[in-house]
Write a structure and sequence with these properties.
The complex is a heterotrimer of chains A (345), B (278) and C (303).
Chain A (H helix, E strand, L loop, with lengths): L2 E10 L2 E11 L4 E5 L6 H9 L6 E6 L2 E2 L5 H4 L1 E4 L11 H10 L9 H14 L15 H14 L4 E5 L7 H18 L2 E6 L2 H7 L2 E6 L2 E6 L1 H6 L4 H6 L3 E9 L2 E4 L2 E3 L9 E8 L3 E4 L6 E11 L2 E8 L4 E7 L9 E6 L3 E4 L2
Parallel strand pairs in A: 3-8, 3-9, 6-7, 7-8
Antiparallel strand pairs in A: 1-2, 1-4, 4-5, 9-10, 11-12, 11-14, 12-13, 14-20, 15-19, 16-17, 16-19, 17-18
Chain B lengths: L1 H4 L8 H28 L3 H9 L1 H34 L5 H7 L2 H4 L2 H12 L6 H6 L8 H26 L2 H9 L4 H30 L2 H7 L9 H10 L3 H32 L4
Helix pairs in contact in B: 2-14, 4-9, 4-11, 7-9, 7-12, 9-11, 9-12, 10-11, 11-14, 13-14
Chain C lengths: L1 H9 L3 H13 L7 H30 L3 H10 L1 H34 L5 H9 L6 H12 L6 H6 L8 H12 L1 H14 L2 H8 L4 H30 L2 H7 L9 H10 L3 H31 L7
Helix pairs in contact in C: 3-15, 4-15, 5-9, 5-10, 5-12, 7-9, 7-13, 9-12, 9-13, 10-12, 11-12, 12-15, 14-15
The chains are: A alpha+beta (345), B mainly alpha (278), C mainly alpha (303).
InterPro entries (chain C): CysW_permease (IPR011866), MetI-like (IPR000515), MetI-like_sf (IPR035906), Sulph_transpt2 (IPR005667)
Organism (chain C): Bradyrhizobium cytisi
Keywords (chain C): Cell inner membrane, Cell membrane, Membrane, Sulfate transport, Transmembrane, Transmembrane helix, Transport
Chain lengths: 345, 278, 303
């Protein structure tokens, strides 16, 4: 099943949750919607599910107008952020719900339903919890039951809203791997929403980065990390150093200091320079693009994090390997191994 | 595209349930109340004024509003004491007394009326000792006051209790650690936090007492100009087929109730905006 | 100054130290001196005993003052039986009407966002703040002989006032908010997630309501019905205005209490009153139990 979203706009009062979003989701892929809270990612997911309605725009499943159908007809499996398990039903009845409410004409007989639920509980490896109630489950178990329930209706698309958001760090990591392998097994077109970059990069085939109701970049996890398309993406993903610079007649300046960096093909004017923390190489004074004095050093396992006051006036944090110990007071030179410059402030 | 124009809601049934709600609300509540106001419009302002300014009406309104306010004030003080005891202290029978607070809510007013009357009558359990002291309660304005206190108790207690329960203990500890005496902490820290709830309780107790009928008329004595409450005067005017008089008094009482509801709503909003969310 | 010196000196002896620690513990930041505590508790208990417990005890004492036989004789009077029957009928009518309304209104108000919601809730609350006498009066003005519909009703020979329909209407007016007000905050707190999940799993609106919503609010429904019923059976002022006090026909139990009391038939009056008091006590006990259930039923999906 492919999903195509065209020029979607949704406003809540004067706040634009979605401000003209276009997106194509391929059959069978596992897509992450990544962005800070308020970026519109959950709204997009809910509109695809039929739980919200856009002010304008189109949503098509396999080329068919999905907005002509309500949530009930779309046949979309939705896993809610807080799971939304039916608290008065056992785990078994929760998973069976979608099968039991089918119109009489297509509804399976009880034995078939039981077998199917059993199968799904096996799939999420929780068959031994069938008779429990949601309040008796741990967060991770609830999450998997919610997923089994959504899968019970054999959805054309699987949508997950912050699937690991409410779990603690350890369970979260386990479930990520599990979700990946599950997707590999069932191969249904899936979209999940997250604000956690690690989660998006680790689990998804493709990542959609959103901010302020717009899509900033669509690409593979490597693409968005290695070649961020916009200043926002660079700042949001990975730990970046962000420096305000001036491009002027082929020269890049930080404050009043010219930097020894190539400025070819850059538009003149105020710009932003982005470097990953670990892409700043430390060298003896005079050897790199930046000069600075080490203010403060802390060690984190294999790396040392140093606060460096650049002679252009900015203070930055870099991550350097510990083969050469830095000390407060050292004067050093820094050379960015890789960097990107985006026009504008 | 056409589907978007309908601005669909996810859950079904909004139109149907909202339509039924508004219809039923109109039939049972709004149309009857509108009828009352419509009826009062049939009176000229002069007639309206004459009815209200007659000595008996004025006295009835004075008795109802005056005693209701006095009773609400007693409830404010005693209610605060009861809430403090129930929330802050542990004593045998605490849960029982907590439940007992609701009795005036649940006990039918006529039952409360006859019980209070017998209790405070000259030969009653409390009436006899009070009579020996020269205090006559039943069949005097004092009786009305007692009945109004009875029905108002739960209002103050039940509005203030949850607020005191949810009050963050840390603010008291902070005040104490900053050197405030216990009394200063109560007056400067706790009381201001409870103020909206206290005022709401006062307003609710007042509104209930003003309109109260069943528990008051038995003990009141119902002497015109002395111990006759406004609701009773409405009933008397109705039985005399003086509908205009009944309507005029009712309209005045309704307007006061609406003002009180409005004030309570405002108080609630004020309280919500003021109290930090934890 | 002298006090402080005396304190620091006496700290050297062990018993004085213990005393000082005890005093410090007593000065705990969140409580009052013992004398104040006892005074407050005593005042609270005394007040509640005089104003609430005594009247309640008196009802039963008076009802049984001439013995248990007189009590049951009074309740077996045809007039008493007619009043009990009418009270049950009227309560059943208004509870059913308000239950249906409460469910419908709570669905519309709690599950959807729309402008004027607070105002609508205020309108539903109105009967709480209207004097019972006025609640009766409005129906007299509508359906009485001189009322807006009085002539039409007379021409078509329909009796509303001084008959069961009038009593049921006035009672429904007075008890209007109970079920809706019990359900709205509960359903708002539960949110719409479970309903959205049900719809996305293919359930219809009615399936969603009966299989998901209703089981979640069942204790709230019971709570609202309980309070609605207690008020319906005990309503006096409104019913008094519309009933006409026709003996054996339009007297509910509270009205009969009034009549018997005014005729100095105290045992009979308090016998009926004791039934109503019993209803109140049972209501309170059931309410306490239900409140416990409601507290337990907080959203598991929220954690």
């Amino acid at each position: 099943m492919t999903i195509e979203v065209k020029n979607l706009v949704k406003k809540f009062g004067s706040f634009a949750a979605l401000d003209g979003v276009d997106l194509k989701v391929n059959d069978g892929e596992l897509l992450a919607l990544l962005g800070p809270s308020g970026s519109g990612k959950t709204t997009l997911l809910r509109i695809i599910a039929g739980l919200d309605w856009p002010d304008s725009g189109e949503v098509a499943f396999n080329g068919e107008d999905a907005l002509a159908q309500g949530a009930r007809e779309r046949h979309v499996g939705f896993v809610f952020q807080h799971y939304a398990l039916f608290r008065h039903m056992s785990v078994f009845e929760n998973v069976a719900f979608g099968l039991r409410v089918q119109p009489r004409a297509v509804r399976k007989d009880d034995a078939t339903i039981r077998a199917r639920v059993k199968e799904l509980l096996d799939l999420v490896q929780l068959d031994w919890l069938a008779d429990r109630y949601p309040s008796q489950l741990s967060g991770g178990q609830r999450q998997r039951i919610a997923l089994a329930r959504a899968l019970a209706i054999e959805p054309r698309i699987l949508l997950l809203d912050e699937p690991f958001g409410a779990l603690d760090a350890k369970v979260r990591k386990e479930l990520r791997k599990w979700l990946r392998s599950l997707h590999h097994e069932i191969h249904v077109t899936s979209i999940f929403v997250t604000h956690d970059q690690e989660e998006a990069l680790e689990v998804a085939n493709r990542v959609v980065v959103m901010d302020k109701g717009r899509i900033e970049q669509i690409g593979s996890p490597d693409d968005v990390y290695e070649t961020p398309a916009t200043a926002f993406v660079h700042g949001f993903i990975g730990e970046s150093i962000e420096l305000p610079i001036q491009v002027e007649g082929g020269v890049i300046r930080l404050g009043d200091r010219p930097l020894r960096l190539v400025a070819d093909e850059l538009a003149p004017g105020a710009s932003k320079l982005f470097v990953r923390r670990h892409d700043m190489l430390v060298g003896p004074p005079g050897s790199g693009a930046f000069e600075g004095a080490v203010q403060h050093v802390r060690n984190f396992g294999p790396v040392q994090r140093a606060e460096v006051a650049l002679s252009g006036g900015e203070t930055i944090e870099i991550d350097a390997p510990r083969d050469r110990e830095l000390r407060a007071g050292d004067t050093i030179s820094l050379e960015p191994r890789r960097y990107r410059i985006f026009a504008g402030t | 595209m056409s589907a978007i124009a309908a601005r669909r809601r996810t859950l079904p049934g909004f139109g149907l349930t909202m339509g039924l709600t508004l219809t039923w609300l109109s039939v049972i509540i709004l149309i009857p109340l509108a009828g009352l106001f419509l009826k009062s419009l049939e009176l000229s302002p002069e007639q309206f004024w004459n009815i209200l300014s007659s000595r008996r009406t004025l006295n009835a309104l004075r008795v109802s509003f005056g005693l209701a306010f006095a009773a609400a004030c007693v409830n404010l003080v005693m209610g605060s004491i009861i809430v403090w005891a129930l929330v802050r202290y542990r004593f045998p029978g605490r849960r029982l007394f907590d439940a007992i607070v609701d009795v005036p809510f649940a006990l039918p007013t006529a039952v409360a009326g006859v019980a209070l009357t017998s209790l405070f009558a000259e030969k009653g359990w409390l009436g006899a000792p009070l009579a020996a002291l020269g205090i006559k309660v039943a069949f005097t304005p004092l009786g009305i006051f007692v009945a109004m206190i009875f029905i108002g108790i739960p209002f103050v207690v039940r509005t203030v209790q949850p607020v005191l329960q949810d009050l963050d203990p840390e603010i008291e500890e902070a005040a104490g650690s900053l050197g405030a005496s216990r009394w200063q902490t109560i007056i400067r820290v706790i009381l201001p936090s409870l103020a909206p709830a206290l005022l709401t309780g006062l307003a609710l107790a007042f509104a209930r007492a003003v309109g109260e009928y069943g528990s008051v008329i038995f003990i009141a004595g119902n002497l015109p100009n002395v111990s006759e409450i406004a609701p009773l005067l409405i009933v008397i005017r109705l039985s005399e087929f003086r509908y205009a008089d009944a309507t005029a008094i009712a309209v005045v009482m309704l307007i006061v109730s609406f003002v009180v509801i409005f004030a309570v709503n405002r108080l609630q909003r004020w309280a919500q905006n003021r109290v930090p969310v934890h | 100054m002298t006090m402080q010196i005396a304190d620091s000196v006496s700290l050297s002896s062990p018993e004085a130290k213990a005393r000082a620690h005890a005093a410090a513990a007593r000065n705990n930041l969140r409580t009052e001196p013992k004398a104040v505590r006892i005074a407050i508790i005593t005042l609270a208990i005394l007040f509640l005993s005089v104003f609430v417990v005594l009247p309640l005890v008196l009802v039963f004492a008076q009802a049984f003052s001439k013995g248990i036989l007189a009590y049951f004789d009074a309740l077996a009077e045809p007039e008493a039986l007619a009043a009990i029957k009418l009270t049950l009928l009227v309560a059943a009518i208004s509870v059913v009407l308000n239950l249906v309304f409460g469910l419908v209104a709570a669905w519309a108000i709690a599950k959807f966002e729309f402008r004027g919601k607070t105002f609508l809730i205020t309108l539903i609350d109105l009967p709480f703040s209207v004097s019972p006498v006025i609640s009766g009066l409005v129906f007299v003005l509508l359906f009485g002989a001189q009322g807006y519909f009085g002539g039409w009703l007379r021409d078509h020979d329909i009796q509303i006032l001084f008959a069961v329909p009038g009593i049921a209407l006035a009672t429904t007016f007075v008890t209007f908010p109970f079920v809706a007000r019990a359900l709205i905050p509960l359903m708002q707190e539960q949110g719409t997630q479970e309903e959205e999940a049900a719809i996305s799993l293919g359930a219809s609106g009615l399936q969603t309501f009966f299989r998901v919503t209703l089981p979640n609010i069942k204790w709230g429904v019971l709570y609202g019905v309980l309070l609605c019923n207690a008020r319906a059976m005990g309503e006096f002022g409104a019913v008094s205005v519309v009933s006409g006090h026709i003996r054996g026909e339009t007297n509910t139990m509270p009205l009969l209490v009034e009549i018997l009391y005014n005729e100095y038939q105290f045992v009979a009056a308090f016998a009926i009153a004791s039934l109503l008091a019993m209803l109140a006590l049972i209501t309170l006990i059931a309410k306490t139990i239900l409140e416990r259930h409601l507290d337990e039923g907080h959203d598991v999906n929220d954690h």
